[in-house]
Amino acid sequence: MENKKVMGKLVSYLLNIVLVFIVVLPLLFSITSSFRPHEDIFKYISPITWKTFIPTDITFSAYKDIFTESGFGRIFFNTFFVGIVTVALGLLVNSMAAFAFSVFSFRGKKIVFFIVLLTFMVPFEVIAVPLYKVVSSLGFIDSYSALIIPVVANGLVIFLYKQFFDDLPLSIFESARMDGASWWRIYYGIVLPLSKPVTITAGLLIFVGQWESFLWPLLATHSDQYRVIQVAMSTFSQEHATIWNQLFAASNLTIVVPAILLLFLQKYFVNGIANTGVKE
């Protein structure tokens, strides 16, 4: 019996090691390739040796070029600005909507909430063209408004907030109302301070969603002035060639921000998801 347990653990460890290598080696290749001259990117790919993952001629030209030639300074600003503004507006709008769904009773409440749930189950590609027509009719195309306003309302974030608010004791609201507090006062003075884990979770979901967004920014903006990072990544693949070292450099910088956020906020993210699950 003990031998079976040891063998089981050994097999489990070996499988985990293999999975780690599968995940880490492409990332390592991407990082090292960003420090190589363009002509050396695939020079050591076959056969695979230590030179495949350790550059012998280190250069920072790829990182320099994406900022001096490709304008990544402006691109990073655009992506940060769009992400932060969307988070601020999204947390406010979605938490207020969730508070209304959780606390108030009104005609058609279940139907409206069901429609909200449907919004994050439907693939974005299905609504991309109708959404473009709506945004175009409002005159928002090729502006920050086109990148921010259509994605402020988020069905998943509303669902997370509502699940959290539903678990708050009703006595909190009753006591506050008896003391003369308005619903607005209860919302921002009592409920929001208690919602730190779900707020951080929701903020991360919104920010990462905007950071990784490609299709909608590609449709909604045309000029370089509003270009965001995922759209900019596609410009390294040209008609007859791909600038691989710059593509790898940009890819590495792209994953740094979400990785740092998740690294420092993962405790709140896990707690927020765990505490807002479906309760029986």
Automatic annotation (TrEMBL):
Highest taxon listed in the record's lineage: Bacteria
Transmembrane segments: 12-31, 80-104, 111-132, 144-165, 186-208, 243-265
GO biological process, one term: transmembrane transport
Membrane topology, record value: Multi-pass membrane protein
Keywords of this entry: Cell membrane, Membrane, Transmembrane, Transmembrane helix, Transport
Subcellular location: Cell membrane
Alphabetical list of InterPro entries matching this protein: MetI-like, MetI-like_sf
GO cellular component: plasma membrane
Pfam families (alphabetical): BPD_transp_1
Similarity comment: family membership: Belongs to the binding-protein-dependent transport system permease family.
Protein name: Sugar ABC transporter permease
